Amino acid sequence: MSELVTGEAVALELRPARLPSRALAVLLDLLVGVIVYVVVTIALVASTASLDEAAQFAVSLAAFVLVMVGGPIAVETLSHGRSLGKLACGLRVVRDDGGPIRFRHALVRGGIGVIEILLTFGVVACVASLVSARGRRLGDVFAGTLVVRERVPVAHTGFLPPPPPWLAGRFSGLDLSAVPDGLWLAIRQYLGRMQQLDPQVGWAMAERLATDVAARTGTPAPQGVPPAAYLAAVVQERQAREARRAFGNASAGAYGTQPAQPPSLSPAAATAAPPPYYGSAAAPPPPSPGAGPAETRETPSPERPGTGFAPPA
Fold first, then answer.
1. Which of 89, 103, 274, 294 counts the most CB atoms within 10 A of its CB?
2. pLDDT, tens digit, for every residue of 108-126?
3. pTM of the model
4. How far apart are CA 144 and CA 15, in angstroms?
5. 149 with 20: CB under 8 angstroms?
6. Are 29 and 85 in contact (CB under 8 A)?
């Protein structure tokens, strides 16, 4: 339960990569690196033929470091953890909290990878990956990263319950820009699994998540609204805004806060005081008090058209 709230919820969605898939990805990366290094070496030999042996050796060493060490670091930094080998094997490097890696993480992984992969032919990396519970090598341990699998079998995720109809449109003016993605992920996972939790534990988790959302939005849950219903309404409002940004106002009916057929209320919600009704075009507006018979119009019949024009005999 603590992992779900503190940001480790990504471990519930992604699986750590094991040694066989990681070894295959490293071999593919090394193969690509060797091919690039050979091409660069041939070009350097042709262009530095007039230099002495010491200068040629220094240029070759610099090319080796740039291609075999700097290349993987740059690729992982720019692709946020997806090298060519990892992309082919469906793997990705992420931080321990599930976020994308940055340059410092790729630099530490690449620097230690020179020792545990290139100098020792991968023996140290294989031993460390077999000993680790999540398959991490020494570079991952020092950099605070984890290699996970992106292509996993589709699992049956928990159904996100819609908020009660009496909360529809209540949070349309809420500022959600300060809520981080990790908190949204924790809320979605809680809503999908709250039916499987102990009632007391689920209520405590909902209160903690609702408190975090209220602290970042500046708007606490209304008085008398359960924290789970408050979270469901906020998530629905965020989905509606994302749909409007992606598809325009035409998709507001599919993701908006006004459901066409609102779900049935629970017994606890049905006994509560009914909130104001938010708009419906089913019934016509009542006539104004000053309206008289002059506002009443006759319905034209087929024999006598109501346009004022009499057809010729």
1. 89
2. 999 999 999 988 888 999 9
3. 0.48
4. 17
5. no
6. yes
